[in-house]
Amino acid sequence: MKKNTFLKKSAMLACLFLAAATTQAQIEFKVQTEMSTRFNDVNDSGFGVTVFEYYDFETNTFTPLENEAFMVQATNNDENVAGYMFFDETEFILQAAYRLNGVWNPIGFTANQDPYNYDENTPYGISPNSLYVTGQSNVGNDYGGFLYNTQTQELLIALDPEGEASASYAVNDNGIMVGWVDRPDSGGTLRVPSYRTLDGEFHFIPEGQLPTLTGINTINDINSADVMVGDFDLQPFIYDRTTNTFTSYDNPGGADYAGFASISENGVAVGFAEVDFQTRDAIIYHPSLGSQPLFLKDVLADNGIAVNTPDGLLGTAISVSPNGKYITGWLNGPPPFAEGWTVYLDDLILGTNEVSQNTVSFYPNPVENVLHLNSIEAIDSVAVYTITGQKVSNVTINENRTELNLSNLASGVYLVKVLSNGSVENLKVVKQ
C-alpha cells in the first residue's frame, strides 16, 4: 500500500541496524535511524522501496534509483515497480512510469490531459503480474483513477459516472482497481470504499450501506483472490468479493480509528490504529492470531522482540509481502521525514509455511470437492475458515488420513486449521 509522496529528492540514505533478534521462528526487526527512510512497499524476497531508493532486507542496504527515475511507490515479486519519471525536467513536471524487467518506461498522458496545466497521473500500485499500473488522475477539476496496461500501452482514466471525485490505490491481476468515490451528503462530501472492474462498473462496499462517519473510508489494497482491505466508519475491514463477505473488526486497545493498509495472498492484513492525536501504532490480523487485529509490537514482544523506538510504537504498517512474511512501514512523525522499519516474521504466522515444511500434507489444491489430508500424527480435528476469519466447518477426527468434503463451499480462499497432537497447522486452500 503505497499512497504518500513528496517532491524533494534526498541524498543517498545511510542506515543502521537498530534492533534485531532471533527466535525459533527467526524473526527479525530492523529500524532505520536516518530521516526520510520511510518504506512504501516490500516483496517476498525482502526487496523494498522507499520514496527514492531500493532496499535489500538481508544486507540492510539501500540502492539509489536509476538516473531516469525520480520516485517509486510500489513493487511486486518480479521487482518491477511503479513510480515517476520526468516529463519536463526544466518545468519540474512528472509523469507516471514503471520499471519492467529493469527498464523504465513512461506512461505519459491521455489526449485530453494537459500536463502544463496541472493535469497529473499519480502512480500508487502495480499488479503482481506486472500487467497493470494504477493511481489517481485528473483532467482539470475532474479526479478519478487511472489504469495502464503495460502490454497494450493503453492509458484509461476512470471517472465516476456521477461526476464525483475518486481515486485508485491498488490493482490486482484481474484488473480490479480499488480506492474510494465521493458521494454528496448533508455536510459536504463523504468518501465511500469502492472498486472498479474491467467492465467499467463502480461497486461500493458494503453493498447498500454508506458510511455514517467522516474518515478515510477507502479500500487500500486487494490481493489476487479478490480479497480487499481498508477502513469503514473508522474501523478496519476485510471484504471477500468471491463470497461477497464484508467483515468489520474492532479497533485494538480502544483506539478511536484504525484501518488496514495491505493484505497478503494468504490473508495477513496490516495497517495502523490511531492511539493518540496524530500518533499511530501498527496492527496485524490473521485468523491464526485470533479473531481481532492485534498491535504488531505486542506480537513481536510475545516472541522476544523489543520495539526500541523513541515512543515505543511502530507507527504505520503500510505493506505486507504477498507471502505474509515481511511487513514494512514508518515510525511516527511527519511522513516525508519519518524513519522506516521492516519486520521479517518467517513462519511465525501459521499458514505461511510451504507445504514441504508441514507435518500435514494435502491435495488437490485447488480443490473442487474433496480435500485429502495426511498427517504424521493422528488428526484430532479440522476446522475451515474463510479468509476473513469466519468458521464454516468443524469436524472431529482420530485418524492420520481423512477426506474433507468442501463441495458445499463457495469458490474462494479458505484457511484449514488442522489440530494434531496438541499442535496446529494452517493450510491455505483454494476452492474452485
TrEMBL record:
<feature type="signal peptide">
    <location>
        <begin position="1"/>
        <end position="25"/>
    </location>
</feature>
<dbReference type="Pfam" id="PF18962">
    <property type="entry name" value="Por_Secre_tail"/>
</dbReference>
<dbReference type="InterPro" id="IPR026444">
    <property type="entry name" value="Secre_tail"/>
</dbReference>
<feature type="domain" description="Secretion system C-terminal sorting">
    <location>
        <begin position="363"/>
        <end position="424"/>
    </location>
</feature>
<keyword id="KW-0732">Signal</keyword>
<protein>
    <submittedName>
        <fullName>T9SS type A sorting domain-containing protein</fullName>
    </submittedName>
</protein>
